[in-house]
Amino acid sequence: MPGQQYDLKSNPAMVLADVTVAQSAYFGSLIIFICSFPFLFLGTGFFIVIGAVFIVLAFIDATNIATLTFTTSCAADNDKLIVRYGLIRPIRAIIPASAIRHINVDQSWIGSKLKYGSIIILGDDLGIRLQYIKDPHIALSAIKNSITLSTARSSKDGA
Q1: How much is the average pLDDT of 22-41?
Q2: 21 to each of 56, 76, 92, 107, 134, how far by Cα in Å?
Q3: Cα–Cα distance between 86 and 49 in angstroms, integer?
Q4: Gap between the Cα atoms of 84 and 8, Å rounded
């Protein structure tokens, strides 16, 4: 059901350990931060403002990745996929396995070199994007396997 609250701690679910945020995702923030120093220390006027904006953007990006690192979790329970991430506006979604239409990996060139990417899960009425996932192809296969295992288990229980 859309909008239903689901707590992973109080419900028995198979938590997918392969769906974690990659620490190498911080590399982009570090590059932006380092690139801001020439603007700050060698520039004048407008270039100092540009350097300050770069530092703020690097801080926001690193904070976003840190938040996703501590809050992203994915589990499979009784033929449904449970996804949770976010701190200020937490997203908690329960997607029945029968409603999942497409699961795909979106990976940039830098993400493929640093082994992180996004997993996009499209359902009948819901779409979720899990960002900065470590080894997204392994995480994708873990999600697909957990959905097929839980649907196979529930069809055996129902028969």
Answers
A1: 89
A2: 22, 18, 17, 14, 5
A3: 30
A4: 9
